[in-house]
C-alpha cells in the first residue's frame, strides 16, 4: 500500500469508527469546555472568615467592614475568643480566623506593632490558604494605611512595601489562565495517543495483512493530521472562545504543532503495537493522564525533580508540548527561545516512529 | 455470603489470568505513585531561577543579590544589564523571575523607585512561589538596611513599618507542597485506576454486549457482582494506605485529625468508584464507552474537587457537577481530617460517599436485572 492510500484509509477509519472518532474528535471538543469550567472564575472568592475582635475600636470595626466588601473573603461571623473561632473552623464553618488583639489600634498608630493582627489559615488547601492570606493581609494593610493617612501619618505603604511585583503573561494570576493552557497539552496528547494506539491494537486484533514502511508512514501522517487539527482548534478557536492569553507567536505555531502532533502520533502507534486489542491499550494509557500532567512541570518545576525523573518526563511529548506552546502562545517567545523543546519533540518523533515501524514489521513477521 | 466469596475468588482468578488487569492493580500504581513520590521528594520547589538586573551596583544592591543567593528557595542564574535580556531568559524558561534594582536603591537618589520583581505567572504555582520568596528576602534586606541607616541617622528614619501579621498555617505548618500535592495526587490517581479496573471486571461478565447470560447462569448475581468488585476496592484501599503511610511514616507529615478516618474514607471512595463503574457498564454495555465515561467521571475529578481553586465563585454546572463526583467528598473528608475537624463534617461526607454504592450501584444492578428480564 502506498503512503497516500494508507493515509486516506487511516483517516477514513478514524472518522468512521465510533470508538476512534469518540476519542480523537468528540473528546477533544468535550474537554475544551469541560476542563476549564471549574476554573472559569479564575480566583478564589467569598472564602469564609471568622473574626475575633479583641480591640472593639473604630479601626477594628472599619477593618471588619472592609473585609466584608472584598471579593476574596466573606466574614461569616465575629466570636468572642479563639476557642470559639477554632470551634467554627472545626465545624468547617470558616477557612480562616482573623484575630485582632486588644492593642491593635495602638500598635497600628504607633507603627511598633507586630502582635496586632494574627491569622490562622486552613493550610490543607495550600494555594487557597496563600490566596486568603494575601487577600486578608492586603485589606489589613490598606485599612491601617488609610486610617493613619487620615490622621496625618506618613505614606506608610510605600515605606513598608518597597517592592513591586509584576506577574507576567497571566497578569491577573487567574487559575484558568494558568491551568488550562498547561492541561490542554495533555488533553491533546492523550486523546491522540488513545486514538492512534487503539487504531493499531484493533488492527492487530483483526489480524490484518503485514504493514510495510510506506503504509506505516501513511498511518502516522494521518494520525499527525488529526492531532494538528485538534491543536489548531484549541490554540485558535478554543483559546479565543475561552479568552485565554494567546497568539504570542502564531507563525512559529505552524512549525511547532506538526512537531508535537507527529511525536504524539508516533508514540501512540508504537504503543499500540504492544497490545492485542484497543480496550487493553486504553486501560493502560488512561491512568497515566494525571501523573503526566504533573511530570510535565505544570505545578512542580522540572528543575526541582530528581534528574532521572525530569529526563524521563521529557519522553512524554506533552512535556515538550507544554514548554513549547506556553512559550509561544502565552509568553510570545521567539523561535530561538523554543529551540530546546522543539528539538526534543523532533527527536521523539524519530525515535517513536522508528519503534513503530520496527514493531509493526516484527509483529507481521511473527504472524507470518 | 458464599456468593460474594465465590465472586471474590473468581475475580482474583480472572485478574491473575488477565495480564493487563494484573498490571493495573500492581505495577501501574507502583510506577505512578512512585514517580509522584520521587517528584515531590524535595518537599517544596527550591532553587527557583532568578535573574538580577542591578542598575545600582552599590552595597545595598549587592546585599540584595547576596541574600537572594543565600535563600534555599531561590538561585541566581544570571546578572543582566537590562530587563530585555532578563525577559528573554524568562520566555525561554531559563529563569522564573527577574529582580530589577533601581539606581540609588534605599537612598534619596532612587526617589521612591521600588525594587521590582517580574515573574512568570503562566506556571503560576512556581512563579508565585518565586515572587513570594523574593519579596520576603528583598523586604528583609531593605528593612535591615533602613534600620542600620536610621541608626546612623542618615535616611528617613520617620518611615515606620506596618504592623506585622502573625500567620499560622493549620494542617500544613511547614507549607509543604509535598504534603499538599501528595494528598491530592495519591487518591486522584488511584480513583481513575480503580474505575478502569472495575469497568474491566464488569465488562468481562458481558456476553454479546449484554448481561442476560450472566444473570441466567449466576444463582445470586447481585452478591456475585459485589464479590467481583471487592478485590478492586481492596486493592485501591491498600495502595491508598501505602501512599498515606509513605507521606506520614516515611516523610514525617501528620494529620491533625485521624488517619484511621482517612482510611475509612478511602474504602468509601473506592466503593463509590466501583459503584459508578458498575453503573457505566450496565448503562452503556460497552467497555470502550464505559472507559471514556470513567475518564470523564474520575480523570478530571481533581479539577472539580475544589482542592486547588474553591468552587464557591464557579458557575452552576461546575458547582453541581462537583457535588456529583465522589472524589470531591473524599477530598473534603480527607482534608478535614488533615486539619482536624469535629465529628459532624466527617459523618456528612461519609454519608454522601455511602450514597454512591446505594444509588449508583443500585441503579447499575437494576439495569443488569432488567436486561435479563428483557432477554
TrEMBL record, chain A:
GO terms for cellular component: plasma membrane. GO terms for molecular function: ABC-type transporter activity. InterPro entries: ABC-2_transporter_component, ABC2_TM. It is a multi-pass membrane protein. The chain crosses the membrane at residues 20-37, 178-201, 213-240, 252-272, 284-302, 338-360. It is found in: Cell membrane. Residues 24-357 form the ABC-2 type transporter transmembrane domain. It comes from the Bacteria. This is ABC-2 type transport system permease protein. It comes from Sphingomonas pseudosanguinis.
UniProtKB/TrEMBL annotation, chain B:
Signal peptide: none annotated. InterPro entries: ABC-2_transporter_component, ABC2_TM. Residues 22-364 form the ABC-2 type transporter transmembrane domain. It is found in: Cell membrane. Keywords: Cell membrane, Membrane, Transmembrane, Transmembrane helix. The chain crosses the membrane at residues 22-42, 179-205, 225-246, 258-282, 294-318, 338-368. It is a multi-pass membrane protein. It comes from the Bacteria. One of its GO terms (cellular component) is plasma membrane. GO terms for molecular function: ABC-type transporter activity. Its main location: membrane. It holds the Pfam family ABC2_membrane_3. The keyword Hydrolase does not apply. PANTHER family: INNER MEMBRANE TRANSPORT PERMEASE YHHJ, MEMBRANE COMPONENT OF ABC TRANSPORTER YHHJ-RELATED. This is ABC-2 type transport system permease protein. It comes from Sphingomonas pseudosanguinis.
